Amino acid sequence: MVYPEKGTYKICPAREVLGFESSTARGKVNIARAILEGFLKYSSNGLPDQIFKSCLLCANCLTHCPVQVDLPKIVLSMRQDIVDLKLGVPSQLEKINSAVEKKHNVFNEDEIKKSIFANELGLPRTGDLLLFAGCYFLYAYQEIAKSMVKVLHQAGINVSYLAEEEWCCGAPQIFNGSLATATEIAKHNVSAILKSGAKQVVAPCAGCYHALKTVYPELLGETPFKVIHSSELIYRLLKEHKIELQEWVEDTKITYHDPCHLGRYEGVYDYPREIIKTIAKTNFVEMQRNRENAWCCGGGAGGVTYIAYRDMARKIATERVKEASTAGAKIIVSACPLCETALRSSATRHGIKVYDLVVFVAQNLRNDA
Amino acid sequence: MNKMRIILEKVVGPENVSDDEYELIGYSKDASADIRRVPSVIVRPRTTEQVSMLVRLANRTKMPVMPRGGGSNVVGCLIEGAMVLDLTGMNKIIKIDEESCTVTAQAGITWQELIMSLNRVGWTTGPRPHSAPTATLGGSVALCANGVTSAKYGLIGEQVVGLEVVLPTGEILRTGAGANPSASNFIRYAFASDLTGLFIGSHGLFGVITEVTMKIYPLPETKKCLGYTFDTIEDATRAMRDIQLKHLPLERMYLETPSSLKYFYPNLKANAALVPIVVEGTEDETRISKHIVEEVCLGRGGKVIETNILEEVSRNLDLIYFNVADYRAFGIGVNEVPLCSCVPTPYIPKIVKMFEQICEREDIEGYGIIGAIDAFACKEHAVVSPLLHYEMKNNESANKCREVVKKLVIALMDVGFTPHYLGRLKGPPELLWKLGAYYETLRTLKKTLDPNNVMNPGLLGMPEF
Q1: What CATH number does the domain containing B394 carry?
Q2: What is the DSSP code string of A140-209?
Q3: CB-nearest partner of A19 from B21, B36, B89
Q4: Which of these, A94, B287, B323, B416, is most buried using a 10 Å CB contact count?
Q5: In this structure, are B84 and B94 located in the same domain?
């Protein structure tokens, strides 16, 4: 349900792909109610899979619900119940959980790569400002973490990095119902961050940011360090003239995709936009559904949809990319490597490039600043 | 069901068939106070031809069929054990015809999608139901629903120009001018009998509505919200009546009684009644309309409400448009049962009185049920809307609500109540048989059109399957 001035009438990406009542917001609440009232058991044929499939936890429903029914929380609770009842998570998510338990990253990559990264860039293990690089840099997007370091060094700011002591933030486990695993991860990461002496932690990934800033305190209590997203830090550096950005010279429209866990969950809408507009000026265009109305990339919280329901993720991503195309954009910038991954293959088919915000900034730094 | 499932998957594809328990439970409720009625299988067709195949299959295999749109009806139209045709996948706009001022769309499109698509090209529908985000075109026609903007346009059924219907035996029928394949579907009354009327309000008993052609109107240039309070419901009703006789371009006109004011406008220290009005049109038209409305209302003892209250009224009307006001007024976990009926406007006070008397006699408050009643203009008449709100978690409250609904509709019939949709809750046998030859004719038509009784069997007192 959306007010007409917001320009859209679709709310749930899962519902748009799957269509059945069980994938609507109303249907998901009804399933939860039927379980509570004893009409339905979690072990009912196909139900556990449906509870993972039918919700991206994008919170578009909660944002627009006039009485604030917290459906993401309800779905998350159902996932936790399913894990507790040992009914299992989809096998692809089990692989992720297993990789995180053994190698502390979702891609099952060797942790030595973290040390190599730290040594290559000369990053100390302790300091006031800590980079929480996240798992993606280990797999395909090393440039996000490298770009963050480049921007900070250009601004004359030292940044530390935990290397092997940085474990996966636990977002996949938080969102696939594996709360016990997520709590262990959180305990480790908080302990490691405290040992590093960090007063501030900067996370370029929206998922890591939300996990560290909001979920960890829910699991473990308040933490003494401040967690900020890379967009907020870069915005501050710009305002303090510690970095300068050059103007975009090509006549190419650029748009911004709001990650769900940065936008709707954390209320961060303006920092990325101000940064992109500094570069793109009048070449910045908004998609019709933006800010709290942004259509999900299809990745799903913690990558659940992208990992376990790839076909569905692609359909949702394609709708988002078409929206960018309708807005005239040839470049989508986002602030979450999961969003960028989810959007990229569809975007390429539509002749649109996808950049991470930090990479975009690093590429457009003025070196004479 | 396994063999049936294989055949169904051949018709619509495996991704459009489900008999999973969790899915069936999802379709076992609608927005009404009716009990759970679990279907057998859910099928999501995408074309009229698929609907026809499915209905023919139901006839061959003797399976009940239940067409379903948004599931937002408030009167209960569920059929236990049915093959549910979830038509929400048939949601395309076929044609916006600016020459004939009509739009043709598949039955499963939501009102919100339809209205917003029309708005983009400068048009709109007449009545607009406040369940617009969920309610579908086909469902609204099958139940002859009303819209909050019925002041100028009347009930939804009055806007229908033609239909495409799959009959209970599977034939595909076009009514209105559309019966001529070479004609555009621009007018309802063509050739001979008005078959369109047969299916409006038919509760799915005579077939599956698959396409609707209805009238559209240019978007008005502007709107103005007005509001007047009155010392008595009688004064407010007379003012409403006088305004209706002026045939002004009103978007809507409500009459809120003390019981509805308490919940929708708790900050308003109203007298007995509030009449919010929205006039629409050009700047000149709205200015003149405002002047005439004010003259009438002040002449009937009305007082202009203060600007800040008017702003609240205006915001509330937007919220009512999307059914938000009700949820906010009554809270989570409370379901609403409206008992709408179109009546001659002067009947409003006696119906309000009777409603309040019955609610008191039945001690609804003792069961946690809240009663409220309001009305809104529907062309030269009014839709009176007695509302009962019960706690969904409280079975006793729900049961009592169902019982009181039945007593209310039967009692209100005696004072001229003519509900334009019935469902299970508003159409108990005692009411139906009061309708004499009208109801008997419906039963005869049902036997003729649906010899195997597959379409919504048992609804409106028709034979069970």
Answers
A1: 3.30.300.330
A2: T-HHHHHHHHHHHHHTT---EE-GGG----SHHHHHTT-HHHHHHHHHHHHHHHHHHT-SEEEESSHHHH
A3: B89
A4: B323
A5: no
Complex ipTM, two decimals?
Answer: 0.90
Q: How far off is chain B from A36, nearest CA to CA, in Å? A: 11
Residues B332 and B418 in one domain: yes
Question: Within an 8 Å CB–CB cutoff, is residue B394 touching chain A?
Answer: no
Asked whether the beta carbons of residue B23 and residue A2 sit closer than 8 angstroms, the reply is no
Which among B23, B36, B324 has CB closest to A66?
A: B324
The whole model's pTM is what? 0.92
Query: At B227, which amino acid appears?
Result: G
Residues 6+ away with beta carbon under 8 Å from B187 = B100, B161, B162, B176, B177
Interchain contact, A21 vs B26, CB within 8 Å: yes
Contact A44 B319 (CB under 8 A): no
Domain boundary among B263, B296, B317: B317
Residue ranges making up the domain that contains B188: 90-218
